[in-house]
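User: Can you predict the 3D structure for this chain?
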Amino acid sequence: MSIRTGPSARQCNKITLSGGTERTILTVTRLPLAALALALLAGCAYPYSPPSLPPVASSSPAISVASSAAPAEARAPVTILVSIDGFRADYLTRGPSPHLSHLAAEGVTAAMRPSFPSKTFPNHWTLVTGVVPDRHGIVANSFTDPAHPGERFTMASDQPYWWDEAEPVWATAERAGIRTATVLWPGSNVAWGGTLQPGGHHAVTGGVRPHDWLQFNANISDRQRVDTVIDWLRRPGPTRPRFLTLYFDEVDIAGHDGGPDSAEVNAAIAHVDQAIGALVSGLAELGQTANLVIVSDHGMAATSSERVIALDQMVNPVDYEMSENGPFAMIRAVPGHEAALEARLLGHHDHMDCWRRNEIPVRFRYGRNPRIAPYFCLAEAGWLIDAKPAEKPFTGGAHGYDNADPSMTALFIAQGPAFRPGAKLAPFDNVDVAPLLRDLIGLPPGRGLDGTDASFRRVLRR
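Assistant: Here is the predicted structure, written as structure tokens:
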């Protein structure tokens, strides 16, 4: 069918992909929305000649956006923090991401070091708090806490006490009267500072959430996530969010399944790039300028069943319990077996180092939080730690390794009226992102943070 929206024509066509999957492709002719969109993001401060960009593909039918809404409204810039989980910095050079590549060319880009451990939830919480995982308490994707025996943190945990050791920027903004909205950012569904009521069907007393938020559901498509952001920005000025976050996960999933050099990763890069194109076009149709800060939480290293370190071949299984395995292992001694475990575990091994918690090297800024197990082992990038050898052959990808390893380096792009165009920054630590966000949305500098905005001062328009 053909849909008319202002001076452009849209055509929705169904195509069949390999495997029989149907996709609806939305094509736009006559009006170069990408050109208008990127000019708006840049505040129209400089001329722009767009490349030829691919159409935006969606797994659900395209939604018509009316272009006649409030054409004369003067809109203040908003700040949108976008995470593409698992998007290694060098993925940007592969080719299937023209929208991201153009934003990088017209904005600010850098290779960004994740915090240690280079895992999803620790780094997403660092990006919005400005402190390292050892201080904000989300020390892994799964862990226990001596203060809460019998409980375990998982990526589905929304009990506030797991998250309360550092305040996210949306909580600070909401308390300052700045409206915020989040789409699936890890931890954004938590009532920060609140108390979960026993037997209260997840009811929470007190606490601060973003004004708008969604409970995570992997079945919410990329296009639905983008459309949610755009719909929130359609609101009248007094109720419109000024700071938003948006999260995409398919690049990380493809990296785990196929490895960082796989065709699956390239396809996922292309798909999320189309979602970024849809976001830029949607902002243009609204006449909404935006400062986009596009990041990743970590990179990805190739793994194999031939690179598995089997702990049971080194230490006696009766001496320990392992609460986390993979690129790193968290280990507890069975009571009374500490000496036997330490004699065989601690020190350097082929492709692995093991320490007591308080002896983890200082450069990792990790080891003070009691949520970290008493013994910690870290594998060489590309190797995995498990109790036993792999039972069957596999290849794939993983992260959680040394955050200084090149394979863990994360994406950073910033583009919009607040940024000087065409700048490339030296590598920096991701604790600096939260101070940058505070600058963009008008919050005072944070106190006691591990990061600063110093990395960005020469590229910000003051």
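Confidence is low (pLDDT under 50) at residues 1-72. The chain is about 20% helix and 25% strand.
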